[in-house]
DNA sequence: TGAAACAACGGACTATAAGTATAGTATCTC
DNA sequence: GAGATACTATACTTATAGTCCGTTGTTTCA
């Protein structure tokens, strides 16, 4: 599977665990609402700075963000 | 420390472990020699697709690439 | 039955990463 | 001192990352 899709699945999974809408989450990580949506759809090649922003919004380290079978 | 620098340190660390020059490594991951150099210097905000290319060149998963105290 | 919340989608735009080229420094060997 | 190897500095083009505006379709619930 494409790494873009894996990132999308992981993001959606974490966001749903927290019970947040895309919009609410976009406020937390200070990224655009539509951008978050397209990441979740596996359409984006996200840069490491934004991955870090996303991880921080989930109160987790970059290591923990990638600590999933998806990235094994 | 900036995440860009952390990526650079991790890359250099892994490359040195393998005893590869920047140029030889750049052949392995099919990225430009000078591009690899600037990543190592923490100047680039690398995207996940290129991080995956780099990890693959080291025969490791993205998970393992980030499995370092640097990203904890 | 409508309005509020949510996600998918699109178009136009700006910012920046990707990728390349060239030159330069430092060290070593012959 | 020429040639080879390893790395750094800078600067540039072009692809695409990322923003901002809006619309549409669905679900849920008062």
TrEMBL record, chains A, B:
<keyword id="KW-0238">DNA-binding</keyword>
<dbReference type="GO" id="GO:0005829">
    <property type="term" value="C:cytosol"/>
</dbReference>
<keyword id="KW-0804">Transcription</keyword>
<dbReference type="GO" id="GO:0003700">
    <property type="term" value="F:DNA-binding transcription factor activity"/>
</dbReference>
<dbReference type="InterPro" id="IPR010982">
    <property type="entry name" value="Lambda_DNA-bd_dom_sf"/>
</dbReference>
<dbReference type="Pfam" id="PF01381">
    <property type="entry name" value="HTH_3"/>
</dbReference>
<feature type="domain" description="HTH cro/C1-type">
    <location>
        <begin position="11"/>
        <end position="65"/>
    </location>
</feature>
<keyword id="KW-0805">Transcription regulation</keyword>
<protein>
    <submittedName>
        <fullName>DNA-binding XRE family transcriptional regulator</fullName>
    </submittedName>
</protein>
<dbReference type="InterPro" id="IPR050807">
    <property type="entry name" value="TransReg_Diox_bact_type"/>
</dbReference>
<dbReference type="GO" id="GO:0003677">
    <property type="term" value="F:DNA binding"/>
</dbReference>
<dbReference type="InterPro" id="IPR001387">
    <property type="entry name" value="Cro/C1-type_HTH"/>
</dbReference>
């Amino acid at each position: 599977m494409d790494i873009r899709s894996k990132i999308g699945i992981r993001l959606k999974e974490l966001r749903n665990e927290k019970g947040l809408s895309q919009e609410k989450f976009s406020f937390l990580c200070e990224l655009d609402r539509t951008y978050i949506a397209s990441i979740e759809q596996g359409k984006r090649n996200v840069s490491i700075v934004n991955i870090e922003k996303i991880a921080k919004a989930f109160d987790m380290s970059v290591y923990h963000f990638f600590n999933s079978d998806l990235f094994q």
